[in-house]
Design a protein that fits this description.
Length: 72
């Protein structure tokens, strides 16, 4: 399973995703291997959001990215 997480604006994960990061989660979705999902995410404000996989070991393996939100 993958747990894709969008962190709150201005927050990032340190060396690994863990319990201390739970309070900084803005949005998350679980996706099984081989599964695809389509979702709608409404950002609270423009900015750069960190996206990580919260499944143990996946963040340190490189499952991390960013989402840039611009004002309309």
């Amino acid at each position: 399973m993958h747990e894709f997480v969008i962190m709150k604006l201005g927050t990032t994960v340190g060396d690994d995703f863990g319990d201390e990061d739970e309070g900084n989660i803005y949005w998350e979705i679980e996706v099984e291997p081989g599964e695809s999902k389509t979702v709608t995410f409404t950002a609270p404000e423009a900015g750069e959001y960190q996206i990580v996989c919260g499944t143990e070991g996946h963040f340190v393996a490189g499952m991390v990215g960013s989402l840039t939100v611009v004002a309309p």
